[in-house]
Amino acid sequence: MRKSVFLFLSLCLFCCHTLAQTPRWNSVYQAYIDQYHDMAIEQMLKYKIPASITLAQGLLESGAGRSELARIGNNHFGIKCHDWQGRTMRKDDDLRNECFRVYDNARQSYEDHSKFLTQHRRYARLFQLRLTDYKGWARGLKECGYATSPTYAQALINIIELYQLDQFDRAKGYDRYVAQHAGTERPATPVQQQYPIYKNNKNYYVKARTGDTFASIGREVGVSGHELAEYNERPFNDRLYDGDIIYLKKKRKHADKEFKNHIHVVRPGESMYLISQIYGIRLKYLYKINNLSPDYQLKVGDRLRVY
């Protein structure tokens, strides 16, 4: 019996080791990275914690934001209560019914994770490492007791290398608006702020209101009005109408992968520009994808590819 148990445990350890050594790319992890990398860079520049480490821990601890702890408690790093004075929730972990911190949104979780590492003396030696030494940070976190899993450090390293997260460790800047709002937006039901935030094709956008200008929107979202006009391929002084889509970053060359085989059938009132805004594509590339010249006269019923 004892031999059988030993063989079973050995097999489990081998499987865990194998899984830690051979992770596979998946779109859920990539979507999480796209959503939170600006926030991770912000934390790095503020607290001197590698962005790659922050992202890898967020991915691993929260299951790319899909764990119960992340979904209900906005806790992306598995931080337990300790001396926490805020809201809490109970969940089985190393022990049954353990206490975990609860946050209002992911941004609070990212900020608290940074403070947790900087304010606890047991992690002090990590800050002697270079920001680009993600392997040293990963092994140091395990040695300092952040997690009990024997494969924790290697799992972080594997995630960083598979998704090339170390590229963010060399960043000198980030999108401030995205960093401040990632984790507070809900694409289907946007949070009720002065400007609800939406997400489309790995980009963020707001909807103009009657009387808005690129300058007025820019002041509220912290992005230059001239940059907003350029991102949206319109003159700076162009009149905006209620409901106009205003992207906060430069649009991409094609739509998201889910539209790879999609055909857009032109409806009454639609223009090439409006369609480019709907899918978050730069106008010239929408023409290019469909082998059309810029002077093409769009007709109702035309069939357009967007990828």
Write the layout of secondary structure elements.
Elements: H1 2-21, H2 27-47, H3 51-62, H4 68-73, E1 88-91, E2 98-101, H5 106-119, H6 134-143, H7 152-162, H8 176-181, E3 198-200, E4 203-207, H9 214-221, H10 225-231, E5 245-247, E6 263-265, H11 272-279, H12 283-289, E7 303-305
Antiparallel strand pairs: 1-2, 3-4, 4-5, 6-7
Helix pairs in contact: 2-3, 2-5, 3-7, 6-7, 9-10
Provide a brief overview of the structure:
This protein has 307 residues and is mainly alpha-helical. The protein has helices spanning 2-21, 27-47, 51-62, 68-73, 106-119, 134-143, 152-162, 176-181, 214-221, 225-231, 272-279, 283-289; strands spanning 88-91, 98-101, 198-200, 203-207, 245-247, 263-265, 303-305. The relative contact order is 0.10.
Describe this structure in words.
Helix content is 42%, strand content 8%. The protein has 307 residues and is mainly alpha-helical. The protein has a three-stranded antiparallel beta sheet. Strands 1-2 form a two-stranded antiparallel ribbon. A two-stranded antiparallel sheet has the order 6-7. Helix 2 crosses helix 3 and helix 6 runs antiparallel to helix 7 (152-162). The longest helix has 21 residues, at 27-47.
Task: Name its key features.
mainly alpha, single chain, two-stranded antiparallel ribbon, 8% strand, three-stranded antiparallel sheet, disordered N terminus, 307 residues, 12 helices
